[in-house]
Design brief:
The complex is a heterodimer. By secondary structure, chain A is α+β, with helices and mostly antiparallel strands. In chain A, about 30% of the residues lie in helices and about 25% in strands. The longest helix of chain A has 19 residues. Chain B has a seven-stranded mixed β-sheet with strand order 3-5-1-12-9-10-11, with helices on both faces. In chain B, strands 7-15-14-13-8 form a five-stranded mixed β-sheet, with helices on both faces. Chain B has a four-stranded mixed β-sheet with strand order 18-26-27-28, with helices on both faces. The longest helix of chain B is centred in the last third of the chain and has 27 residues. The chains are: A alpha+beta, B alpha+beta.
Chain lengths: ~260, ~775
């Protein structure tokens, strides 16, 4: 691991200012992606600005929205009574991220800012029509995820919280990669104030996306049979040794069907 | 028996677990020598290339760097040797290319070591290695075996068509005649998938040189310290054995992969001599993936000739066996003497022919991995029999039973050299059928079908050959070493005992099981017995632990030494109790004069041996310490039956193992907890091969499965709770009657799993299943069948 300077931030604005002032610095949240990347030599940074003390964790439910602070750990979302009551699909998703050690450190802000094409939270954000709040503005999920490991965040912009509109019904089903246990295909479905949404992670060549053909079909009837035999478009599927494009396209349909079944 | 039975058959908890479970084990990486330096290997990132130039100057001046070595610096150092020589069918010796410690002019696999940097810290060594400038001229990579043997690019110039040897056993013409006249022939093509061993402890080695005594010490993660001392001392570094000490401390698993002599061991030892400072190397996990010997990797075409009632008439097969880029220590023997000689299985098949072609490729060296040849043989047999049964409409159990070698047929001479000593295949089959509740399967299958799931049942009845090996036989077959085992039993004056064994324990629990042997024979509690292993300075020459040999061969050596101890003790007791030696009885740790109430304890005899005041000094030396070297009369032949039940979700291809039953015959059971643990671990690895693990190289020889992100290790939630039982038939030719159990799990389990999946999907028209049977692979097989 190469050397870096380390500093703590006292707030989101402070973190933003600090990281913009470095040569090649990075924010660090839970470190569950960043630290392994640095150890493997895949990332090098002159500075790490730690968000741990920036006052960005916490969960609140106000009216029709569940707001989760960016530095809230997965374990806390998974075990939060408020999230379990309001959006059990979301707490369920958090409980399936990584393993206990990862859940004790990983944060929603880190996951969303990183936008790993096989991460779970991006599917929840897109699947619920979430609003991503930064120290500068609010960005809707539909505008936020821009491709593999790419988001709409500007240089030095810091996510402060994610607001999830409470749906009428929702579910997340994850089909894990047998080796890494990341989502090979993860489908988050919801029906609520943000309309009918089917968000898919793990499968697409450009990362998380909405499967609009399924959404149209479901506007007819919200039941598993609506998705019998559907599949995603093979040409937009990622392909690797664990799942070629055709198998992945099939799985998207099958897992979406299971998500609808789980949501009723 | 002492109170709290700790003898043979006792279910005592393992003594060694106290330190392992509390983090107090002492593994090679835990050892730190004064003034030590750290080594980091620069390894090839391409599969096949000429080294046009190599410039280490920038690395030499980097911070903390003490030395940088390449092949050019190592004049006088020999290549890493192969320990088993095979021949072509015409008698020509196999092609045996030099395996240089550091790449000489060419790199032949991703991971091939090119240079080593030695620095004050590991971090400095690694950073400096990145400064080495290397100019490689890429060559086409030889990866696919079927293409490799067609010729074209050669991994080694001297190996025409990339063939190491072309070997066979059996009379091809006679076997072909039987096939020509048979009612039915079943054929199958099988790929036995390459596996990466992944012991939990990565390999490590520390070389140390003492200039005053001119003695070298190598600490290394090995299963066979004397073997390393012999191979490295004699063939690589020319260090006489009395000046070379090899220490294998606690070793965290091996599964065969730590049996072999590796280049890194020679490198750190040689470098320590050059520098006059200890040199320490510990592999990173990703480095282990590209430097530990891999396992399996056979492509097999097989045929079984049967009469229409299902009697096996003849079997023939041809296998391409991957050797990788260089010959590892035992590699040539694995697909031949450890595989082809097992092709009778538990069956009376009278005519067998096997042709093995060993192939060089631009991949990591392949050698023995838990089962070593026997899983491959059993897999081929159990898959082809499963298929034959389906083709002929015969029940899976019936077709096996029909062809079983019967209990009264032993000793049974197979057509492929091996003579089995004893066995009762019906007993383990019956036990497994009961444990698997086969009778209830149809109901479970119907219930699963209601939920859209497909259930299947798969069988595997196997025998294997282990307890390696009779030295004369091994030598005749090309082994370049003997395969006996050593034991030195040292009774201390106050009655406790230390046993020095040439076996090595890296998960087997020898410190407990071997102590139980002493407890049984001498009558002392295992707390008073110390088992010492791993240090060549302390232990008589032994061959180490692999091939499930330690109890059969190492344990027998201990028994022989104990026999000598008791023999001498009786003489001492007879003198002290003023009786004839023939009147002395020994039981439960006490020597009695028959027909009297005179007795003395073993401890008293021990003391007398070391304080020989009342002692027959004119005819008997003082002391109570005896050695034995035991050369087995034959291999041993554990056998058993594994039954796997699976539930397949056809919409995703996910296979769940709902039940797994293992009924095994390991001969005499010394410690049932250890036996059960061995079966659990072996079955986990067998299931791993069937469903999860698979080492994949792309056409350029790049290792695609280079980490746990892509190489799927079995985890606890992949596995069911097993139903395990043992049905013992004693080995007839060793004093303990033991057969071995370390590898039966991997041998028996894999075909049971695949047979179960084929059974589940047979109604969809699926007749075969590649390994690993990942969800994608299963789903695809279903699509292709419909």
């Amino acid at each position: 691991m190469s050397e870096f300077n380390y500093a703590m931030a006292s707030s989101a604005d402070d973190a933003s200012a600090q990281v913009k002032g470095t040569g090649d610095g990075s924010l660090i949240a839970g470190g569950m992606t960043l630290i392994p990347s640095i150890k493997l030599g895949l990332a090098t940074h002159t500075d790490l600005i730690d968000l741990a003390g920036a006052g960005l964790s916490g969960i609140s439910v106000e009216g029709t929205t569940v707001t989760i602070g960016a530095m809230t750990r997965h374990v806390d979302v998974a075990s939060s009574k408020e999230v379990v009551n309001a959006i059990p699909a979301l707490s369920g998703l958090a409980s399936g991220i990584g393993d206990p050690q990862v859940r004790n450190r990983g944060t929603i802000g880190g996951s969303v800012a990183n936008n790993d094409p096989a991460a779970d939270y991006p599917a929840a954000c897109l699947g619920l029509g979430a609003m991503i709040k930064t120290n500068d503005r609010e960005i809707s999920a539909d505008d936020f995820f821009a491709g593999l490991f790419t988001t709409a965040l500007k240089e030095g912009e810091v996510i402060t919280s994610v607001g999830f509109p409470i749906p009428e019904r929702a579910a997340y089903v994850k089909f894990p990669n047998p080796a890494s246990r990341y989502a090979l295909v993860g489908v988050f479905v919801s029906d609520g104030p943000m309309g009918i949404r089917v968000a898919v992670t793990g499968a697409g060549i450009s990362g998380v996306y909405r499967e609009s053909s399924f959404e149209s079909a479901l506007s007819g009837a919200w039941e598993p049979a609506t998705l019998d035999g559907v599949k995603a478009d093979e040409s937009s599927m990622a392909s690797d040794i664990h799942a070629a494009a055709d198998y992945r396209a099939h799985l998207v349909g099958e897992i979406a069907r299971r998500a609808i079944a789980a949501s009723v | 028996m002492p109170d709290g039975n700790t003898g043979i058959g006792a279910a005592v908890k393992r003594k060694e677990d106290r330190r392992f479970l509390t983090g107090k084990g002492r593994f090679t990486d835990d050892i730190n020598r004064p003034n030590q330096t750290f080594a980091y290997f620069l390894r090839s990132s391409v599969a096949h290339a000429n080294i046009k130039s190599l410039d280490t100057s920038a690395a030499l001046t980097a911070e903390g760097v003490i030395a940088v070595y390449t092949n050019e610096d190592m004049e006088g150092v020999g290549g890493v040797p192969c320990g088993w020589g095979l021949t072509f069918q015409n008698g020509d010796p196999m092609v045996e290319p030099v395996h240089p410690v550091l790449a000489a002019g060419k790199v032949r696999h991703v991971g091939d070591p090119i240079a080593v940097v030695i620095a004050e810290t590991k971090k400095q060594a690694k950073a400096a290695a990145a400064l080495i400038k290397i100019d490689l001229e890429d060559l086409p990579a030889v990866v696919n075996m079927t293409n490799a043997v067609e010729g074209g690019t050669l991994v080694h110039e001297e190996a025409a068509n990339n063939i190491c040897y072309d070997w066979a056993i059996g009379d091809k013409d006679e076997v072909d005649k039987v096939f020509d006249g048979a009612d039915h022939v079943t054929s199958i093509e099988i790929v036995n998938n390459r596996l990466i061993p992944n012991a939990i402890e990565p390999r490590a080695a520390i070389g140390d040189y003492d200039a005053v005594s001119q003695k070298y010490t190598l600490y290394t993660t090995t299963q066979s310290p004397h073997l390393i001392r012999l191979l490295m001392g004699a063939f690589v570094l020319q260090i006489p054995e009395h000046k070379l000490r090899v220490v294998a401390p606690d070793v965290g698993g091996g599964f065969g992969s730590k049996t072999f002599h590796y280049a890194e061991e020679a490198m750190v030892t040689w470098a320590a001599g050059q520098l006059g400072r200890p040199v320490k190397w510990t592999a990173e996990r990703s480095e282990s993936f590209i430097s530990d010997a891999h396992g399996r990797d056979h492509i097999t075409t097989a045929e079984l000739a049967l009469s229409k009632d299902g009697t096996f008439l003849a079997f023939r097969e041809r296998t391409l066996a991957n050797m990788g880029a260089y010959l590892s220590t035992f590699a040539p023997a694995v697909p031949t003497y450890l595989h082809s000689t097992l092709l009778a299985g538990v069956y009376t098949t009278p005519m067998i022919y096997s042709n093995i072609i060993a192939v060089f490729t631009n991949t990591v060296a392949v050698d023995a991995y838990r089962g070593a040849g026997r899983p491959e043989a059993t897999y081929t047999l159990e898959r082809i029999i499963d298929r034959a049964a389906r083709e002929l409409g015969i029940d899976q159990v019936d077709i096996r039973r029909k062809n079983f070698i019967q209990p009264d047929a032993f000793p049974y001479q197979t057509p492929v050299a091996l003579e089995y000593d004893s066995g009762n295949y019906e007993a383990t089959l019956a036990s497994a059928l009961k444990g698997a509740d086969v009778d209830g399967f149809e109901a479970r299958k119907a219930e699963a079908a209601k939920n859209g799931k497909l259930r299947g049942l798969g069988y595997s009845t196997y025998v294997e050959a282990c307890g390696a090996a009779p030295s004369a036989v091994a030598g005749a077959l090309g082994a370049r070493a003997g395969l006996y085992e050593s034991a030195n039993v040292r009774v201390h004056p106050t009655g406790s005992i230390t046993v020095f064994t040439g076996s090595h324990s890296h998960g087997q629990g020898h410190e407990t099981a071997f102590a139980q042997l002493v407890s049984e024979q001498i009558g002392v509690d295992i707390e008073n017995v110390e088992i010492s292993h791993g240090d060549t300075d302390q232990i008589p020459f032994g061959m180490g632990t692999y091939a499930s040999r330690s109890l059969a061969v190492g344990g027998s050596a201990i028994v022989k030494a104990l026999d000598k101890i008791i023999d001498k003790s009786k003489k001492i007791a007879a003198h002290i109790m003023e009786a004839a030696e023939s009147d002395i009885e020994f039981e439960d740790g006490t020597f009695k004069v028959a027909g009297t109430d005179k007795s003395m304890g073993f401890g008293e005899v021990a003391l007398a041996a070391y304080i020989p005041h009342n002692y027959p000094l004119d005819v008997l030396e003082p002391g109570l310490e005896e050695s034995a070297f035991y050369d087995p009369a034959n291999f041993t032949f554990p056998a058993g039956c594994h039954i796997c039940e699976v539930e397949v979700d056809p919409s995703t291809g996910v296979v769940e193992i709902t039940n797994f039953t293992a009924a095994d015959d390991p001969g005499t059971v010394i410690n049932p907890i250890i036996v059960e643990g061995q079966i659990h671990g072996g079955v986990a690895q067998g299931i791993g091969q069937a469903l999860l693990e698979g080492c994949i190289y792309d056409d350029n020889g790049q290792l695609i499965t280079g980490s746990y992100m892509d190489y799927t290790m079995p985890r606890a939630d992949d596995l069911p709770s097993y139903v395990v039982s043992t049905e013992s038939t004693k080995c007839t030719h060793n004093p303990l009657g033991v057969k071995g159990v370390g590898e039966v799990g991997t041998i028996g389990a894999t075909p049971a799993v695949i047979n179960a999946i084929v059974d589940a999907l047979s109604e969809l028209g699926v007749t075969d299943m590649p390994m690993p049977a990942t969800p994608q692979t299963v789903w695809r097989a279903i699509q292709e069948a419909s």
